[in-house]
Amino acid sequence: MLKAPTTPFSKDPEAQLAQNASPTSGQGASPADAAAQNIPNTPGADEQRPAPEEGERTRKPRGEKNADKPRQPKTEGPRRARGPRKPAVDAWKPEDFVVEPQEGKTRFHDFNLDARLMHGIHDLGFTYCTPIQAQVLGHTLRGRDAIGKAQTGTGKTAAFLISTITQLLITPPPKERYMGEPRALIIAPTRELVVQIANDARDLTRHTGLNVMSFVGGMDFDKQLKQLEARYCDILVATPGRLLDFNQRGEVHLDMVEVMVLDEADRMLDMGFIPQVRQIIRQTPPKSERQTLLFSATFTDDVMHLAKQWTTSPAIVEIEPEHVASDTVEQHVYAVAGSDKYKLLYNLIEQNDWIRVMVFANRKDEVRRIEERLTRDGISAAQMSGDVPQHKRIKVLEGFREGKIRVLVATDVAGRGIHVDGVSHVINYTLPEDPDDYVHRIGRTGRAGASGTSISFAGEDDAFALPPIEALIGRKIQCEMPPAELLKPVPRKH
Questions:
Q1: Full-model pTM
Q2: Minimal CB count within 10 Å: which of 168, 214, 289, 481?
Q3: Got the DSSP string for 36-60?
Q4: Domains and their CATH numbers in the chain
């Protein structure tokens, strides 16, 4: 019989959080619960189980849950594991992380987070919570399910990662454990998003000893399997299809999942992934025994229906996209003839020596043409569209993130899955016909409260799209003529 670990749902979560807190974390009081709606329990076809009372968790002890269904390892004899990742060691002390209280802002210190997690937060330069982080963490750190409405760039990834990591740190893993049994599961619709979430998770867990793994399609299956065979998995980030591949082959078992996160649920609906997600959720513990966090850019009827099936009395947090656009991004529009757009683009990048720029165009052939001209003219550029193979997309994103690629040219469909910190400028080479796409585009800069700049080119063919954009964001964007020096001919490269 396995030894049953303690669980934050069977005791007072706040007491456990305080027990694991850093010495400096008690500087501020925990924020009060924000007002939130509750969704009644209406189990779906995938979870026909009686609903607990609001906030109640009924997680079985690990040993009890596994005792009645012993599992033999797939291979002969137990797999050998290297065990937990050794946390990085340096001279950092909690006292080194000082953030002064500020009216109207919430510090990470105010949540009594584990000192090892605070070390990672400090390394990343985080000081004050973004609105969605403050609101989500106020609920999820107490063990409550949550549904968040937020665009990318609001800091939602850090919100669910900090909550997930805290859950794993205050709940000891069982003494006996099989390979391929993650304790936290994060599902995202695209490979690029999975890679970026996993990278963020590794940064935050650097000093905790927790292991983070990512599974995506389009990459070598055996290579991904080797990392699973090498060590235990604490946090697994995956696309639905590849996760099912591992699950159906008996390499991954989901009966120990304590926290499940569904990111960009609306996109998973649009891309037809929900049947696969249902299959995955059936493999996890009942919703009364796990914490479920769901995030979506929109709260459609379909999204809310799924939330009712998969969560227990969740807190609802909404961050409106127009605030993201208007508050953190400086927006400009240049009135320019179509024949002058490329000259304007080239001169803006070269004369200002910008090093991390995203350029959006409406069509794939435009994206390809812009990227080819920039490369020919000596600016390191790459394209991101549906024509680019998935394995190359990952390589392009890494090069862009590392600064090897200065300019990333993308379509709207490809661009929505890109989340790279440090993008200084977004340029709309052509204005989008859908105003929502404008908000998504400029959300690639000014992420998580940082400042950014967007510049839109309005020509005779796309200026009609500007008024609906202004109506959506609730403000006028000044339209100006570009100065003459920005329309100089592009020098020929020999």
A1: 0.60
A2: 481
A3: ---PPP---TT---PPPSTT---PP
A4: 13-44+59-65+84-319 (3.40.50.300), 323-487 (3.40.50.300)
